[in-house]
């Protein structure tokens, strides 16, 4: 990205960046639709009816290298309704490091995703990073080239039907994995644009803190300008339950190996939670590489 881009940093500079590229990733990435166009498209191979509900809270333990419980992460379905003039899901991901790893990487990060009901393409994405006591907030409106908007968020120009890392996790859960072998999803990670390639690697029995699961193993690669991103490999296990719960996620990254393991899952209705928004000046920027 250029010096004027809305977020300037190397995504390999911090463990938190890797977690969001992964989790929170998944690149784990991911497909954006036009904010001003009311139509939305369903991803090929995805289910038409959402598997998740308002109030779902998935909590994870993050192991990094020799540190068990180096961090804790959470995925939340915050709400479903009208946001910024569009019917959408509101998803949230958060990561907080714990001692002793926190002494090396003090991280308290959150990301909010607003995704279309059908296909879960993102049109607003917000990050709150607090790393080493230095808070930073970014606000992105994801639009296609040639679109316009009066919203005072930073406009990021991406291909139609792009996902952010958070909405991508839910999009993968929507896939009809028993009947497809591969899914390709454009992904904007808050900084750069990728193509996420998710491949069905068959069924496995998985044991995590939350219990024993029969799961579908999904191997994920990230492509940047048609070339695979080196030294970054991801694997996701989705439980074969009614809501395709992500029960384990592994990542091999330059900063070391991560294992993200489900510790608890709640499906109860949750209180609605919105951050106060301080709107930044608006600019239009292409997703950089």
Summary keywords:
single chain; mainly beta; 289 residues; 15-stranded mixed beta sheet; globular; disordered N terminus; 17 strands
Can you tell me about this structure?
The protein is mostly beta strands and 289 residues long. The protein has one domain. Helix content is 6%, strand content 49%. The protein is built from 2 helices and 17 strands. It has helices at residues 15-22, 165-174; strands at residues 31-32, 57-64, 67-83, 86-97, 108-116, 122-131, 134-143, 154-157, 161-162, 182-188, 193-208, 211-224, 227-228, 233-239, 246-253, 256-266, 284-286. It has a 15-stranded mixed β-sheet that branches. A two-stranded antiparallel sheet has the order 1-9. Strand 5 (108-116) and strand 6 (122-131) form a beta hairpin. It is globular. The N and C termini lie close together (6 Å).
What letter string, H or E per element, gives the SSE order? HEEEEEEEEEHEEEEEEEE
The domain count comes to: 1
**Ranges with pLDDT <50 over ≥5 residues?**
1-42, 270-286
Shape, principal axes of CA atoms = globular
How large is the share of residues in beta strands?
over 45%
- Percent range for helical residues? under 10%
Structural class: mainly beta
Biggest beta sheet attributes = 15 strands, mixed
CA distance, first residue to last residue: 6 Å
Rounded mean pLDDT score = 78
Oligomer: single chain
Summarize the topology.
Elements: H1 15-22, E1 31-32, E2 57-64, E3 67-83, E4 86-97, E5 108-116, E6 122-131, E7 134-143, E8 154-157, E9 161-162, H2 165-174, E10 182-188, E11 193-208, E12 211-224, E13 227-228, E14 233-239, E15 246-253, E16 256-266, E17 284-286
Parallel strand pairs: 7-8, 8-17
Antiparallel strand pairs: 1-9, 2-3, 2-16, 3-4, 4-5, 5-6, 6-7, 10-11, 11-12, 12-13, 12-14, 14-15, 15-16
């Amino acid at each position: 990205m250029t010096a004027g881009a809305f977020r300037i940093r190397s995504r390999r500079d911090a463990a938190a960046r890797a977690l969001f590229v992964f989790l929170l990733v998944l690149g784990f990435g991911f497909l954006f639709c036009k904010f001003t166009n009311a139509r939305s498209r369903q991803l090929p191979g995805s289910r038409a009816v959402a598997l998740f509900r308002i109030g779902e809270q998935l909590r994870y333990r993050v192991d990094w290298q020799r540190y068990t419980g180096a961090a804790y992460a959470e995925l939340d379905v915050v709400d479903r309704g009208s946001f910024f003039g569009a019917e959408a899901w509101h998803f949230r991901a958060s990561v907080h490091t714990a001692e002793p790893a926190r002494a090396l990487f003090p991280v308290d990060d959150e990301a909010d995703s607003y995704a279309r009901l059908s296909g879960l393409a993102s049109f607003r994405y917000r990050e709150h990073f607090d790393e080493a006591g230095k808070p930073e907030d970014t606000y992105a409106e994801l639009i296609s080239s040639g679109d316009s908007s009066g919203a005072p968020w930073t406009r990021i120009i991406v291909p139609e039907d792009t996902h952010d890392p958070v909405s991508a996790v839910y999009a993968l859960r929507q896939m009809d994995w028993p009947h497809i072998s591969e899914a390709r999803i454009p992904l904007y990670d808050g900084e750069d644009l990728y193509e996420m390639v998710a491949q069905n690697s068959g069924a496995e029995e998985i044991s995590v803190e939350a219990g024993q699961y029969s799961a579908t193993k999904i191997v994920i690669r990230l492509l940047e300008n048609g070339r695979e991103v080196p030294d970054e490999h991801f694997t996701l296990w989705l439980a074969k339950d009614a809501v395709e719960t992500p029960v384990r996620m592994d990542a091999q990254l330059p900063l070391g190996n991560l294992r993200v393991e489900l510790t608890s899952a709640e499906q109860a209705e949750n209180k609605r939670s919105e951050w106060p928004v301080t709107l930044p000046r608006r600019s239009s920027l292409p997703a950089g590489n």
